[in-house]
Amino acid sequence: MQIKLYKLDRTFRHFLSAFILLLLASTFTGLAFVYQTTQFAKTGITERYSGSITSPSDDFDILEKYPKSYSEMLLNTHNHLFGFAFIFFTLGFVFYFNSVITGFWKYLLLVEPFFSVLITFSGMWAMRFIHPGFVCAVIIAGFLTYAAIFIMAFTLIYELLLKKD
């Protein structure tokens, strides 16, 4: 017996939809924070991690403009890897049972985000401690990460709330 999301009990479909909508709200909030701190620009992203201020000029310097310390990088990486692992596990688990996207594309959407997240945060470390040019890897992998979330989430919302027999 194959589970079809759109055939599940109405209450369970609404439960899953509420979870996915909250996950989307969380994702948009995260993206708003990234925009607020980087303006989605290469220079903003590089400055966020590598800094643009090496010594304070006065008491009003913005701490975000300092290079991130090793411990700050560890904490940020730990929290995000841990969180994204659970996000993609739970979202992927539900997405596995969708009947809208199948075959290769389903497989790609289930597996690829785990690699994109690793590349994103590895790129942040490389950008901070090796060379600012790694910002391109961060941008591409970050885009793929969020594209996967949105594609899976909107597919699931469609199947859980709109798709009929």
Distance between the termini: 17 Å
DSSP summary, beta strand count: 0
How would you describe the oligomerization state of the chains in this entry?
Answer: single chain
- Shape, please? elongated
- Number of helices in the DSSP assignment: 5
Look at the helices and sheets and give the structural class.
mainly alpha
Question: Can you put this structure into words, describing what you see?
Answer:
This protein is mainly alpha-helical and 165 residues long. Helix content is 72%, strand content 0%. It contains 5 helices and no strands. Helix 1 runs antiparallel to helix 5 (135-162) and helix 3 (70-95) packs antiparallel against helix 4 (103-129). The radius of gyration is 19 Å and the shape is elongated. The two termini are 17 Å apart. 22% of the residues are buried. The model has no long low-confidence stretch (mean pLDDT 93).
